[in-house]
Design goal:
Helices cover 30% and strands 15% of the residues. The chain contains 16 helices and 18 strands.
């Protein structure tokens, strides 16, 4: 990001200067891109031989990530290539708003303001930074004020417009997205997330591929599925001419499936999203690459992951397991489900890291295991279920059901379960526990897929919370008699 500094911060030795009549951000951007070794220098902008202000480059580093924890690091791209003549941008996010209030004039706020005004002349753009006067002339829909208070005193009718407040601090802030308070980097990403095109070779000149290449990081299987299928369906709605393909192999991406090998996690378990292979894509002329960690700063993805959109996602034919997974799943479930079973109640009891203080602001907390057991007993008696299919990764929860009056009708997959009573497992995420144990991550995931597919063979669903297993069962389009999931209806958080 290029920021504006006062004229008195000009260096004694000026390595680059521009005229105020130039397209200064574009020229400064190109200068900093070519001269990586002197990005610490400032570009001075003159008018009539007097310095007006300086431009300085800052790396796009989120201010609220843990630099020592690779699981929560974000490597954000710089927007090195863009212009006011760009076409095919995605304006659907900014189209929600009629008023944009920018707190600082810098590279991204300037460019997004220009593009928004060009796209929608009726939108009102406001800067509370006096530096905006260097770049804009005020008119009815472009205002420069000292504060929001002044703005609404002078233009009280603007209070009626839906407002997006834009700051310049790059920060991953889930709650702020839902409060319409985002960084200018987020607005840039919302416009340009489908414009990052690469040339890999001469094949398929008449086609454009959208390569979903995201780091897996701490995501579990159901989050991974939802992210990929959700991205594909968003692409289909925005740009139906794009051909989606997926490669979840990112260098130095620590995850519970492939460690840090960089192996494509998707192909380990699933079929490709289209009829084209990754070899085809990596030899094609037009490949739009999603922006890795930049997707975390995309408001669409934040809204999708942290709202009921994920719970309501339907996979349809977009989700296809490979032959190895299908064979393993069929063999496991044939052993688990009795041939004479008629009415089976699926019970999901999610605990583990959902109960950790570290996750309390990000995941819903529903019924306790004991309360869920009591509900299951009621349903079995009232609705005449002959079996209860238990889905839980918590060893203590399995033992709770095994020692209850449901013991003789209880069925479950013999999967790897965690003992959270152990001191070394307390307040740890599943991925951290898996990382410290020497188990086979591939086999563990195969068994978990069987667990999930088992949910689709049941007639009703009871769950203590809206978790990944629940969204999977519903995403599969399972036709349940009823679904009783704590907090499913009230927003999930």
């Amino acid at each position: 990001m290029i920021k504006v500094y006062a004229a008195n911060e000009a260096p004694k030795l000026v390595r680059k200067y521009l005229s105020a009549d130039d397209d200064v951000f574009i020229k400064a951007r190109d200068f900093f891109r070519r001269n990586k070794d002197i990005r610490h220098h400032k570009v001075v902008v003159y008018k009539d031989e007097e310095p007006l202000y300086c431009l300085g480059w800052m790396k796009n580093n989120p201010v609220n990530v843990d630099k020592n924890n690779p699981m929560v690091q974000m490597s954000l791209s710089n927007y090195w290539v863009y212009s006011t003549e760009d076409e095919g941008l995605d304006y659907s996010y900014v189209d929600r708003f009629g008023l944009f209030i920018y707190s600082e004039l810098e590279e991204y706020s300037y460019h997004t303001a220009v593009m928004i005004r060009k796209h929608n002349p009726d939108a009102v753009v406001v800067f509370t930074d006096p530096n905006a006067a260097f770049f804009f002339k005020e008119d009815e829909n472009l205002l420069i004020v000292s504060s929001e208070e002044e703005l609404f005193q002078n233009r009280p009718e603007l209070r009626e417009k839906r407002t997006l407040r834009v700051h310049s601090e790059i920060k991953w802030d889930v709650k702020a997205v839902f409060m319409n308070q985002v960084s200018s980097f987020v607005v840039m990403t919302s416009l340009y997330w489908i414009k990052r095109e690469f040339y890999y070779g001469p094949l398929n000149p008449d086609k454009t591929f959208y390569l979903i290449k995201q780091p897996v990081k701490e995501n579990g299987l159901t989050a991974l599925i939802a992210n990929v299928i959700g991205t594909k369906q968003m692409i289909r709605s925005i740009r139906p001419d794009f051909i989606p393909v997926v490669d979840l192999g990112v260098h130095n991406d620590p995850n519970q499936f492939a460690g840090t090998t960089g192996e494509d996690v998707w192909s380990m378990f699933f079929k490709q999203l289209s009829d084209y292979s990754l070899k085809d894509v990596y030899n094609s002329e037009h490949v739009v690459l999603d922006q890795n960690s930049n997707l975390n700063m995309n408001p669409y993805m934040t809204e999708f992951v942290f709202s009921n959109q994920r719970a309501e996602l339907k996979y349809g034919d977009d989700l296809q397991y490979n032959e190895t997974v299908k064979k393993h799943t069929a063999e496991v479930l044939e052993r688990v489900f009795p041939a004479d079973a008629k009415r089976i109640l699926a019970v999901v009891v999610r605990g583990s890291d959902y109960l950790s203080p570290r996750t309390k602001n990000f995941v819903p907390h529903g019924l306790t295991a004991e309360e869920t057991l009591a509900k299951a007993i009621e349903y079995v008696k009232e609705k005449n279920f002959d079996h209860v299919y238990l889905c839980t990764e918590d060893k203590a929860y399995l033992e709770l059901f095994q020692n209850s009056e449901l013991r003789d009708m209880l069925i479950y997959v013999d999967q790897e379960r965690i003992d959270y009573q152990k001191e070394e497992n307390k307040d740890k995420l599943l991925i951290e526990i898996f990382g410290q144990e020497k188990s086979n991550p591939y086999l563990r995931t195969l068994n978990y897929i069987a667990v999930l597919e088992g949910l689709t063979k049941c007639q009703a669903l009871l769950a203590n919370v809206t978790c990944g297993a629940v969204t999977y069962a519903l995403g599969r389009g399972t036709d349940y008699e009823f679904v009783d999931v704590k907090k499913l209806q009230d927003g999930g958080m």
